[in-house]
Amino acid sequence: MMELSMLSVFGKQFIRSISTSACACGKKNFKKFPLYNKRGTRNFKEQQAKHPHPDVPIHTYGVRPTGYKGATSFVMIDELVPELVVPDLTGFKLKPYVSYRVPDIVQPPLTPEELFGAVYVKKITEDFKSGKLGPDNQPLEPSPEERLTPEVAKAKALAIKSDIV
């Protein structure tokens, strides 16, 4: 770096000037400036394709390789190639998207009375009309839901709730 000195009243005074030489004196630190696949000149890319430099990594942008580098070439492994399984939608009645113009459906949570009415009332009324209730209004032919103990029914309801959420 070149410095200018000037003589002043108080003695010798140093003034900084602009320097055009690099502070590394010609050494280049390429680790600071990563050259990924898209960066660099065409000549650099051709050179990297033929003889890759060990200090310049080949950036894959997060994509997993579908094989491995052999002694002379890249070896493909068929099991590593992703396979997209798409269902056949011929004759499918629904549209592939839901329009934003569909009105929002706001439904309050079910109360215990509504849940009881949705699950048990129909069976109880059928048993009552056909005379299949016992002396304590217990069903003579209970359904699988009526045979459940309270603990098992609660555990089953919580399992269904966790599957929905």
TrEMBL record:
Per the UniProt entry, what is one GO biological process?
translation
Alphabetized Pfam families for the sequence: MRP-L27
What keyword terms does UniProt attach to this protein? Mitochondrion, Ribonucleoprotein, Ribosomal protein, Transit peptide
Q: Name one GO molecular function term.
A: structural constituent of ribosome
Locate the transmembrane regions by residue number. none
Matching InterPro entries, A to Z? Answer: Ribosomal_mL41
Question: Which terms in the GO cellular component ontology are assigned?
Answer: mitochondrial large ribosomal subunit
Where does the record place it? Mitochondrion
- Transmembrane as a keyword of this entry, yes or no, is no
Instruction: Name the family the entry cites.
Output: Belongs to the mitochondrion-specific ribosomal protein mL41 family.
Query: Per its record, how is this protein called by name?
Result: EOG090X0IZW
Where does this protein come from, organism-wise?
Answer: Megafenestra aurita
Write the gene name.
EOG090X0IZW
